[in-house]
Design goal:
Layout (H helix, E strand, L loop, with lengths): L2 H16 L6 H8 L4 H7 L2 H25 L7 H15 L1 H12 L5 H19 L12 H24 L7 H13 L7
Length: 192
């Protein structure tokens, strides 16, 4: 690897181990095995490097989630299978989720990250809606698909928060399926 790639790998390692705010330029340079001057040369600033490392780490996680979302096929328990894989993915990417929540808490001070998160959230809403579309309404309109994706994104973020804070009592995929069935049964039909 070259210095640029080494710096990105070192910055990702630091994000996972120390978090966004606690990572120093020295930490990154040490983790990358390069001089501190290399950060400025390749990225201009520590923040620019951390932002790029954060973006890349989230893209890697999104690829993992994409595989989880498409792996259940048409199984009758597809909903539970997908959420089981999402929860398993969390276990493999726990440090990244901790960094994500840290960054979300600082988003007002990180405008370039906010722009990325807004774009990623829009993509997530679309991406999360498709795997959960059902046979009763296989082609929902754009507003319905957006709403479905938004609910799944809220569930994902909330579940990841539960897994970070209290993993021993966080919901399982089965719990989630039971709860949503019960909630859905109590919601009267609405007009478009």
């Amino acid at each position: 690897m070259g210095n640029r790639e080494d710096l990105l790998a070192g910055a990702k390692r630091c994000l996972y181990e120390k978090g966004y705010a606690r990572t120093s330029i020295r930490d990154i340079a040490t983790a990358a095995g390069v001089s501190m001057a290399a950060v400025g040369y390749h990225f201009g600033s520590k923040e620019a490097l951390l932002n790029e490392a954060f973006r890349q780490a989230n893209i890697e996680w999104a690829d993992d989630i994409g595989a989880a979302l498409t792996s259940a096929g048409d199984a009758p328990d597809r909903f539970e299978q997908i959420w089981t894989r999402i929860i398993e993915s969390f276990a493999a990417h726990r440090a990244l989720w901790a960094a994500n929540f840290e960054v979300i808490g600082q988003v007002d001070h990180l405008p370039e990250i906010r722009e990325d998160l807004v774009r990623d959230l829009a993509d997530a809403r679309q991406g999360l809606a498709y795997p959960f579309e059902n046979d009763r309404d296989p082609t929902p309109d754009d507003r319905t698909r957006w709403a479905m994706g938004s609910v799944y994104q809220a569930l994902l973020t909330g579940l990841m928060a539960q897994l970070l804070i209290d993993p021993d009592h966080a919901m399982t995929a089965h719990d989630l399926a039971i709860a949503l069935k019960a909630i859905g049964a109590g919601i009267p039909p609405t007009s478009p």
